[in-house]
Specification:
Blueprint (H helix, E strand, L loop, with lengths): L1 H15 L3 H6 L7 E9 L5 E4 L2 H9 L5 E2 L3 E4 L8 E8 L3 E8 H10 L8 E5 L7 E5 H6 L12 E7 L14 E11 L3 E5 L4 E10 L3
Parallel strand pairs: 2-3
Antiparallel strand pairs: 1-2, 1-4, 1-12, 5-6, 7-12, 8-11, 9-10, 10-11
Length: about 210
């Protein structure tokens, strides 16, 4: 009788919770929308973009300013064909602007959300794309405002990226631009190489909106 009584109480408690907790525990599936904190890291482990105010403040205190944006709504396993996805973001000293979120990195995040649950965090390493770099000679580097003499390996720079395909001369459409922090990866006597791609994203799902 005692065992039966205890079992009955447990059943009553679980029943009183309803079914909401079952939805919360359900892993993210294709078509769901995940509202996420997203933090991007460069190849030196430095935060370059985040939607988390605490991480942003800590990065500033370390002397490594990053971009700050609002939490992102990312459809699970839904990818983009765009090379650049502009995200409204703030950069210290530069104010509000558009951050250039690279499409291939966005897609790896969208795919990596599959199977995650509300409140769960995960690090998603990015596949390194050799195309996400540019080698410039001294003249080219000076043309974008760089100081070839003073620049060092590991320095961070801000580059602009086109967010729309280049339009023909007969079209009056002006392509948009977004900005992104890049890293100097190599320097020789005559050239500077910068890397656009990042190493990983730290993702935390704040809330899941289920596909209907």
């Amino acid at each position: 009788m005692v065992i039966f009584g205890v079992s009955f109480v447990v059943i009553m408690i679980v029943t009183s919770l309803g079914t909401g907790w079952l939805v919360t525990m359900k892993p993210a599936q294709s078509g769901d929308v995940a509202y996420c904190d997203v933090t991007l890291k460069d190849d030196r482990g430095r935060t370059v973009f985040t939607t988390n105010q605490r991480i942003f403040n800590a990065t500033l205190e370390q002397g490594n300013p990053s971009w700050l944006a609002s939490p992102m709504a990312i459809p699970v396993n839904v990818t983009t064909e765009n090379l650049v996805e502009p995200i409204p973001a703030y950069f210290p000293g530069g104010g509000q602007n558009s951050f250039a979120f690279l499409g291939p990195e966005y897609n790896q995040i969208a795919e990596g959300l599959t199977g995650m649950k509300e409140g769960e965090s995960r690090r998603i390493p990015f596949e390194q794309n050799p195309g996400f770099q540019r080698e410039m000679d001294e003249e080219e580097f000076a043309g974008i405002g760089g100081n070839f003499t003073e620049v060092q390996v590991g320095d961070q720079l801000i580059f602009g990226f086109t967010t729309a395909p280049m339009i023909g001369a007969e079209d009056n459409t002006t392509p948009g631009y977004a900005l992104r922090t890049v890293t100097v990866s190599n320097k020789t006597a005559t050239t500077v190489t910068v890397v656009y791609g990042y190493s990983a994203a730290d993702i935390s799902i704040l809330r899941l909106s289920r596909a209907s």
